[in-house]
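Revision sheet: structure tokens.
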Amino acid sequence: MPRGLFITLEGLDGSGKTTQINRLAAWLKKRGHAPVVTRQPGGTATGDRIRELVLDSRSAGLAPMTEMALMFADRAQTIAEVIGPALDAGKLVLCDRFTDSTEAYQGGGRELGSAVVLELHRLVCSSLQPDLTLLLLPSLDASLERARRRNQRTAAQTGTDEGRFEQEKDAFYGRVWQKYREIAIREPERVVLIEGDLTIDEVHEQIVEAVAERLAVLAVGASS
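Predicted:
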């Protein structure tokens, strides 16, 4: 059985990833696919506990290396439980964040550098790479405003606090934003950059165009 297709969505908090991954999953289902949708951190019982720890504002004392190690612990568990089995079964996997997020947030934002992130990725994830990464990169100000507003609304409605990163200064997010751009430039065949303050529909159109193109290439390869 051929390996499945692994697609990730990346971007700053507030970039619209959750909305777009849900719309993409619905688009794929209408075309006969049954995507496995997961997220990081989270996506497994262990991962959800890690997510609660690393995103909660009360975890303010986490050292950058601790934070990065927790992200990779979550990733290893998700690969073992969700992503790996799904790909081995020939399924299409949609994942909200993967190692690009760690390179951007911990490598860039926390200034740990890319080398340590990529080496941990090699060791912990056996260098598993997405087949396609959709990088949503609206303006920094627009992303932060939406993320902070969303987290305040979620905290008021559910009592769940996931606002630790949103407390960072703008300089931190400037480094994250720049690192994402560096990744896109470094890996243009994998990363599709969707940049600017576009509408939800405009972003969705660019996403489905990129995904449809990748599915067509796979179909040609399977039939040849």
